[in-house]
Write a structure and sequence with these properties.
By secondary structure, this protein is mainly β. A hairpin with a 4-residue loop joins strand 20 and strand 21. The model has no long low-confidence stretch (mean pLDDT about 95).
Length: about 190
């Protein structure tokens, strides 16, 4: 018995690691060198390209493609049809291959809404939240709530997902935060 589930319509290349409890649903393709953590869920039509790393507990909804150069840390949520890029100046006639790829790291707990786009070479901070349809064109601070085209910070969000109001204290779970150079930091 397998430690993970792969639907019969999906294709897993050689030299792939898949963690215990992970579920890969219909019409997915996991490419050579990909590393997927434990307890992940890959919805219908997900593509994980060569050498991509996906942490534990990540959820990729339908139609998400993670291109080479993208790395997801633990507990990242990718909404339906969100988009990642990996080359800032692609040309069909002049392919650069992996030498032209820009790295994108999505840090622990970040959420990317449906149909949002993350332009390569930018990192998303821990527990940040990207609104549906937003276009990320710069680094995102920890706990930032980003929306628009291009995306800009419109607020802060708690680790639990609640939008923070005055005083940077979560009304849902009680966590308290302070502003730092990298975004918000929880006060322990």
């Amino acid at each position: 018995m397998s430690e993970y589930f792969v639907h019969e319509s999906s294709y897993i290349d050689e030299d792939v690691e898949i963690g215990e409890g992970t579920k890969i649903w219909h019409f997915c393709h996991i490419q050579r060198g990909a590393r997927i953590g434990e307890r992940c869920s890959m919805g219908q039509n997900v593509n994980v390209s060569n050498n991509v790393k996906v942490g534990n507990g990540c959820k990729l909804q339908n139609n998400v493609s993670l291109y080479e150069g993208v790395e997801l840390e633990d507990d990242v949520f990718c909404g339906p049809s969100c988009v990642f890029t990996n080359d800032l100046t692609p040309r069909a006639k002049y392919p650069k291959g992996s030498a032209g790829y820009k790295k994108t790291i999505v840090h622990t707990g970040a959420t990317i809404g449906a149909n949002a786009t993350v332009v390569c070479g930018h990192n998303l901070g821990k527990w940040s939240m990207i609104a549906s349809g937003a276009v990320v064109t710069k680094n995102v601070p920890d706990h930032a709530l980003m929306a628009g085209v291009p995306a800009r910070r419109i607020g802060w969000v708690c680790e639990c997902g609640e939008v923070l109001k005055e005083g940077l204290t979560c009304k849902k779970c009680g966590r308290k935060y302070k502003e730092t150079e990298s975004g918000l930091e929880e006060i322990k």
